[in-house]
C-alpha cells in the first residue's frame, strides 16, 4: 500500500510539471466519458433499472393474435368473454386483470378539465404489484356496474387539484357529471399503463390521472367480437412465460374466438416497455463508446509523445534498480490519475447535459422521466474512468518500459529505435481513430438522409394553418350526452359556430386524427361477394368538412353533407387503396359494402386520396370513412383551417365551446404542423444525437491526425533539413509529409468502410427510404473525411517546408 501511495504522489508531481498536457488530456477524456455517462443514464433508466413493481419479472401482457392481422399488429386486445374465460381457467397465473383506456370531465372546481385514465378490474393493482400510497385498492363489489362509484387518483392530480391533502380519502369529485368517491392515491411516478409503446392498438395517455373499476355489464360479458380490453397477468412463482403461454393458448383454442384462428402471445412487461426503443438505445450506447475509444487513442498518442521526452528518466530509474513491472505500474498510475480527472469532468458534464439530452428524446419513450444521476451512474462513471485509464495507458507504459540503457543514457541520444517503434504505434492509433470516425459518420449520415426522406414524404394532407383541439362529452348516465342524438347535435352546432369565427376557412371533427391515434381495423364484407379470408380496412368517423379542412383530394363521387343524417341512406367514403384492392379497374361509386361490426350495408358515395395514418413511415392502408351523424362518438378532435396563425384563433374557439356548455373541457390544443413534428420526433432526436457524437468523433480524429503529423515533423526536422540542404524543394517536403498522413487516413477509411458495411445493418429498423448500405453515403463520407484529413495534414506539412537546414544541422 505504501508503494501505491508513493506511485500516486510521484504521479501527481510528474503531471503537475506538464499542465498543458494534463488540460488537453483531461478535456479529451472528459468529453468521451461525459458522453458515455449521459447516454448510460438514459439506458439505465429505460432498459436497466428494475421496474417499480413487486417481482416485475413475473408480470406479463397477454396479447391476442390473428394471422390475418399479422402485418398490422401481433398484439391485439381481447374481448370480455375471452378475459373471463382465461382468468377462471388458468393455473399458471396468480392474477389476470383487464383494463382499457377512458377519459372523464372533471368539473365543479373552476375550469373544467379533461382527465385521462383507465378502467381496471378490481385485482388490477394486485396483478401489477403496486398499492396506493394513501387509501386502498378496489374491492370486488366495486367492480360491478351497479356498485359504488369510486376512483383512485394519481399523485400528480392529488398535488395539483387537491393541494396534497392528507385527508383526501373519502372526499368526492365530479367526473363526467357523476359524484365519485376517492379511495386511494397512487405513488409518485406510477404511470402503468401509459403510452402507445406499452399498449399498441389502445391509446393511453403518457400520464394517467384516474383509475376506476372496469364494471363490465352483462351485455359486455357476452360480446365475443368486441376487442377492447388489454390483459396483464402475474405468473405464479416458478412458472415461466413459455409455460404460461402454452397453457393460455390451449384455453384460447377452446373459446369461440379460437375457432377463427385467434390465439395469444405472452410478452414480459419489461420487454413490452423497452422493445420499441431497445435498438435505438444500444445504437446510441455503441456510438458514444466509439467516441470514447477515439478519445483514448488521442490520449495514448499524447502519452507516447510525452514518453519520448522521458526516456532518460526511465533509463535512470531502471539503472537504479527499478524492474520493468515497477515502471509499468508507475506509468499506469499516472494514466489512471489522468482518467479519473477526466471522469470527474465527464460526470460533471453529464449532470449538466442530462436535461438537454432528455429534452431531445421523445416523451413517449418509457421511463424517460426517471433519467438522472444516481449511485449506479456514479459507479459507471468512475468504473469507466478507471478502465479507460488502463486502456489508453497500457500501450505507452509497455513501450516506455522497454529501455535501452546504452542508447538512452548517451549524451545527445536521439532514441531512434524507440522512436521508430512508437511511430508505428502512433500510426496504428491514428488508423483506428479514422476507422471509428468513418463508422460513426456513415451511421449519422444514413440517419440524416433517412430523416430528410421522411420529411419529404407526402402525408396526403395539408398541415399548414390547421388548429386541432380535443372535445370529449360525458357519455354515461346521468349526462344528457349519453344519448347519441345529443352528441351529434352538440358537435353539429359547435362546428357551425366555429365556422362563423372571423379568419376560419372551415371546421370539422374526426375520431382518429392522422399521425396521433391508433386506427381501428375491421372486416369489409362486400355485398354479393364471398371472400375468405375477408379483406380488412381501417375505419374512421368524420364530420362533412373533414376532407376540406385537411385538403385531402376527392377523386370520385362526393363527400358527406349535412343531409347524411341517421335516418338517411347509410353511406361510406373509401380511399383509393381500398378501391383498387377490392374493385381494380372497376367503377366503385354505387357499390355496397358492410363494415364488419355493422348489420346493414353502406353505399360507397366517394373515393378520396390515401393519406398516412399512424405515422409517416408505415405504408398506405385501406380506409373507410363513416359520417359522424350515422356513427356517433362522444369524443372528437376538432380541426379548424384558418387564414392566418391557427393558434391565434384558439382562445375564441375555446370560448365558443364554453358558451355552448361551460362544463365541457377543451384539451390538447395545438396545430397540425406540431402533430407532424411530433410524429417524427424520435427520428429527429436519433439523427441529432448521432450527428452530435459523430461530429465530436470527427474532431477528435482530426486532432489526432494533426498531432501525430506535427510530432512527426518535429521528430524528422533533422532529416528534412538534410533533404533541403541536398536540394529538395519545399514541394518535395510537402508531398513527403502529406503522403505519410494520407496513407494513414486511407488505411483508416478502408477499415472503417468494411466495419460500417457490417455494423450499419443493425440500424436498418431506424432507417426510412434508404438502405443500410446506401451507395451515396458510403461514397460521400470517405471523400469528406479524406478532404478534412488533408487539411489536418497540410498544416504540419507546410511548417515542414519552412525548416531551416542550418538550424536542423547545427548540432551534428
Outline the structure in words.
With about 800 residues, the chain is α+β, with helices and mostly antiparallel strands. The protein contains 23 helices and 21 strands. The strands form 3 sheets. It has a 6-stranded mixed barrel. Strands 13-14-19-16-18-17 form a 6-stranded mixed β-barrel. It has a 4-stranded antiparallel beta sheet with strand order 12-20-11-21. β17 (about 590-595) and β18 form a beta hairpin. α2 runs antiparallel to α8. The chain is elongated, with a radius of gyration of 34 Å. The two termini are about 45 Å apart. About 45% of the residues are buried.
Strand proportion, as a percent range, falls in 15-25%
Shape: elongated
The helix content, as a percent range, equals 40-55%
Which stretches are low in confidence, meaning pLDDT under 50 for 5 or more residues running?
A: 411-418
Tell me how many strands there are. 21
Count of separate DSSP helical elements: 23
**Major beta sheet summary:** 6 strands, mixed, barrel
Radius of gyration: 34 Å
Distance between the first and last residues' Cα = 47 Å
Q: Look at the helices and sheets and give the structural class.
A: alpha+beta
- Side-by-side strand order of the widest sheet: 2-3-8-5-7-6
What's the pLDDT, averaged over the residues?
A: 85
Amino acid at each position: 500500500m505504501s508503494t501505491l501511495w508513493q506511485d500516486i504522489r510521484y504521479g501527481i508531481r510528474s503531471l503537475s510539471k506538464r499542465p498543458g498536457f494534463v488540460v488537453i488530456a483531461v478535456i479529451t477524456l472528459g468529453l468521451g466519458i461525459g458522453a458515455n455517462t449521459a447516454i448510460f443514464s438514459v439506458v439505465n433508466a429505460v432498459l436497466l433499472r428494475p421496474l417499480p413493481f413487486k417481482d416485475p419479472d413475473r408480470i406479463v401482457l397477454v396479447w391476442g393474435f390473428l394471422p390475418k392481422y399479422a402485418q398490422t399488429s401481433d398484439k391485439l386486445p381481447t374481448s370480455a368473454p375471452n378475459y373471463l374465460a382465461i382468468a377462471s381457467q388458468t393455473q399458471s397465473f396468480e392474477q389476470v386483470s383487464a383494463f382499457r383506456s377512458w377519459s372523464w370531465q372533471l368539473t365543479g372546481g373552476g375550469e373544467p378539465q379533461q382527465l385521462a385514465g383507465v378502467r381496471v378490474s378490481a385485482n388490477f393493482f394486485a396483478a401489477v404489484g403496486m398499492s396506493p400510497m394513501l387509501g386502498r385498492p378496489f374491492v370486488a363489489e366495486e367492480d360491478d356496474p351497479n356498485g359504488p362509484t369510486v376512483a383512485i387518483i394519481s399523485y400528480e392530480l392529488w398535488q395539483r387539484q387537491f393541494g396534497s391533502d392528507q385527508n383526501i380519502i373519502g372526499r368526492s369529485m365530479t367526473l363526467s357529471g357523476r359524484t365519485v368517491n376517492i379511495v386511494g392515491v397512487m405513488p409518485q411516478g406510477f404511470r402503468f399503463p401509459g403510452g402507445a409503446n406499452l399498449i399498441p392498438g389502445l391509446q393511453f395517455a403518457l400520464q394517467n390521472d384516474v383509475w376506476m373499476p372496469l364494471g363490465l355489464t352483462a351485455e359486455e360479458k357476452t360480446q365475443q367480437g368486441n376487442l377492447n380490453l388489454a390483459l396483464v397477468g402475474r405468473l405464479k412463482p416458478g412458472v415461466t412465460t413459455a409455460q404460461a403461454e402454452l397453457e393460455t393458448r390451449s384455453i384460447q383454442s377452446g373459446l369461440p374466438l379460437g375457432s377463427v384462428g385467434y390465439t395469444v402471445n405472452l410478452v414480459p412487461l419489461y420487454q413490452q416497455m423497452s422493445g420499441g426503443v431497445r435498438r435505438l438505445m444500444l445504437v446510441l450506447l455503441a456510438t458514444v463508446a466509439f467516441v470514447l475509444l477515439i478519445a483514448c487513442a488521442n490520449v495514448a498518442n499524447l502519452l507516447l509523445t510525452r514518453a519520448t521526452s522521458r526516456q532518460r528518466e526511465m533509463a535512470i530509474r531502471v539503472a537504479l534498480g527499478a524492474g520493468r513491472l515497477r515502471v509499468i505500474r508507475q506509468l499506469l498510475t499516472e494514466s489512471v490519475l489522468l482518467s479519473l480527472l477526466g471522469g470527474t469532468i465527464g460526470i460533471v458534464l453529464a449532470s449538466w447535459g442530462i436535461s438537454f439530452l432528455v429534452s431531445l428524446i421523445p416523451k413517449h419513450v418509457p421511463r424517460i422521466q426517471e433519467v438522472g444521476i444516481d449511485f449506479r451512474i456514479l459507479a459507471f462513471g468512475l468504473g469507466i474512468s478507471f478502465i479507460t485509464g488502463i486502456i489508453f495507458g497500457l500501450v505507452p507504459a509497455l513501450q516506455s518500459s522497454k529501455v535501452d540503457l546504452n542508447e538512452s543514457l548517451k549524451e545527445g541520444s536521439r532514441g531512434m529505435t524507440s522512436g521508430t517503434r512508437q511511430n508505428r504505434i502512433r500510426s496504428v492509433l491514428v488508423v483506428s481513430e479514422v476507422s471509428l470516425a468513418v463508422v460513426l459518420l456513415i451511421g449519422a449520415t444514413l440517419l440524416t438522409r433517412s430523416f430528410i426522406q421522411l420529411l419529404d414524404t407526402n402525408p396526403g394532407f395539408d398541415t399548414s394553418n390547421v388548429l386541432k383541439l380535443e372535445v370529449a362529452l360525458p357519455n354515461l348516465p346521468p349526462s344528457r350526452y349519453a344519448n347519441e342524438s345529443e352528441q351529434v347535435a352538440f358537435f353539429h352546432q359547435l362546428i357551425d359556430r366555429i365556422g362563423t369565427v372571423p379568419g376560419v376557412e372551415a371546421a370539422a371533427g374526426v375520431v382518429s386524427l392522422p399521425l396521433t391515434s391508433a386506427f381501428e381495423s375491421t372486416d369489409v364484407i362486400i355485398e354479393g361477394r364471398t371472400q375468405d379470408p375477408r379483406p380488412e380496412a381501417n375505419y374512421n368517423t368524420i364530420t362533412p368538412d373533414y376532407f376540406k379542412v385537411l385538403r385531402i383530394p376527392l377523386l370520385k363521387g362526393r363527400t358527406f353533407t349535412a343531409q347524411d343524417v341517421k335516418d338517411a341512406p347509410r353511406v361510406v367514403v373509401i380511399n383509393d387503396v381500398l378501391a383498387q384492392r377490392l374493385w381494380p379497374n372497376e367503377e366503385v361509386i354505387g357499390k355496397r359494402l358492410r363494415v364488419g361490426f355493422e348489420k346493414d350495408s353502406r353505399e360507397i358515395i366517394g373515393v378520396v386520396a390515401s393519406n398516412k395514418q399512424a405515422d409517416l413511415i408505415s405504408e398506405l392502408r385501406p380506409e373507410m370513412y363513416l359520417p359522424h351523424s350515422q356513427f356517433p362518438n362522444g369524443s372528437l378532435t376538432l380541426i379548424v383551417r384558418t387564414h392566418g396563425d391557427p393558434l391565434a384563433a384558439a382562445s375564441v374557439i375555446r370560448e365558443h365551446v364554453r358558451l355552448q356548455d361551460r362544463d365541457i373541457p377543451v384539451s390538447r390544443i395545438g396545430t397540425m404542423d406540431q402533430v407532424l413534428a411530433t410524429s417524427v420526433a424520435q427520428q429527429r432526436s436519433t439523427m441529432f444525437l448521432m450527428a452530435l457524437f459523430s461530429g465530436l468523433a470527427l474532431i477528435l480524429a482530426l486532432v489526432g491526425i494533426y498531432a501525430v503529423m506535427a510530432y512527426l515533423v518535429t521528430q524528422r526536422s533533422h532529416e528534412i533539413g538534410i533533404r533541403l540542404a541536398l536540394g529538395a524543394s519545399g514541394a518535395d517536403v510537402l508531398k513527403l509529409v502529406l503522403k505519410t498522413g494520407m496513407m494513414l487516413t486511407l488505411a483508416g477509411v478502408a477499415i472503417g468502410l468494411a466495419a460500417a458495411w457490417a455494423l450499419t445493418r443493425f440500424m436498418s429498423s431506424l432507417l426510412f427510404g434508404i438502405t443500410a448500405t446506401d451507395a451515396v453515403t458510403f461514397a460521400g463520407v470517405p471523400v469528406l473525411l479524406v478532404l478534412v484529413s488533408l487539411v489536418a495534414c497540410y498544416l504540419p506539412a507546410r511548417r515542414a517546408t519552412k525548416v531551416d537546414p542550418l538550424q536542423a544541422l547545427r548540432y551534428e
